[in-house]
Amino acid sequence: MSDMADPVYESAKRSVQALGPADQLRLIAELAASLRNEVEHEPRRSLLELQGLGKSIWQGVDVEEYLRRERASWNG
């Protein structure tokens, strides 16, 4: 989150704080239902979509040498 307060957020927060507890709970329930509906309609993603991502970075790298250097750095 940013250190600078979002004026729209702060205004909404003040409005909600002005409501009574019952209305705050009702608002939370309505917001949760709305968000749930949005999330349910988002396309599902697969972790497999990341397969091969960044492989160009490792081209030409000797794995054994890389691991040897990394392990050596653990000892300071």
Radius of gyration of CA atoms, rounded to a whole number: 24 Å
Largest sheet: none
Structural class: mainly alpha
Q: What string gives the helices and strands in order?
A: HHHH
The count of DSSP E runs of length 2 or more, i.e. the number of strands, is 0
- What global shape is seen? elongated
Residues in helix, %: 55-70%
List the total number of helices. 4
Mean pLDDT across all residues, rounded? 90
Straight-line N-to-C gap: 35 Å
Low-confidence stretches: none
What proportion strand?
A: under 5%
What does this structure look like?
The protein is mainly α. The chain is built from 4 helices and no strands. The mean pLDDT is 90.
What descriptive keywords fit this protein?
76 residues, mainly alpha, 4 helices, elongated
Short description:
The protein is mostly helical and 76 residues long. The chain is built from 4 helices and no strands. The longest helix is centred in the middle third of the chain and has 20 residues, at 21-40.
Describe how the helices and strands are arranged.
Blueprint lengths: L6 H12 L2 H20 L14 H4 L4 H11 L3
